[in-house]
Write a structure and sequence with these properties.
Elements (H helix, E strand, L loop, with lengths): L2 E5 L3 H13 L3 E6 L2 H11 L3 E4 L9 H11 L4 E5 L4 H8 L5 E4 L4 H20 L1
Parallel strand pairs: 1-2, 1-3, 3-4, 4-5
């Protein structure tokens, strides 16, 4: 299964996501609450995929963190956010995300989006 990084500043939400991912057989390399820490951990652990909240603690939001992670690696990003306004979506789209889930979401939606993103990334890497 995949190595995943969770970037979520709400502890309870991060815990639920981690539980769901581990129940699906994935390994969570870390769960962090800031964009700066997300970039550091992504560089250190090179996860297969990042689940990224957009609004985070600190100076770097999830979109900026995704841009910095993508500058180092071609790591798939799935955004997990409560924000679906046009401006936020337009900013997020500039990072070519592999998914965009609106909170609250169901575990089934997370699983489906995750599996599609991982499969797409493997196919793109193969090509």
């Amino acid at each position: 299964m995949a190595k995943l990084l969770i970037v979520e500043d709400e502890g309870v939400v991060a815990w639920h996501i981690q539980e769901a991912l581990e129940n699906l057989g994935h390994t969570v390399v870390a769960s962090v609450a800031s964009g700066k820490k997300a970039v550091e951990i992504a560089v250190e652990t090179q996860p297969d995929l990042v689940l990224m909240d957009i609004r985070l603690k600190g100076d770097i939001d999830g979109i900026e963190a995704a841009q910095q992670i993508n500058a180092h690696f071609h790591t798939p990003i799935i955004y997990l956010t409560a924000y679906s306004d046009d401006h936020t979506l337009e900013r997020a789209l500039t990072t070519n995300p592999y998914g965009y889930l609106i909170k609250p979401f169901q575990e089934k939606e997370l699983r489906t989006t995750l599996e599609i993103a991982l499969r797409r990334h493997r196919l793109e890497a193969h090509l």
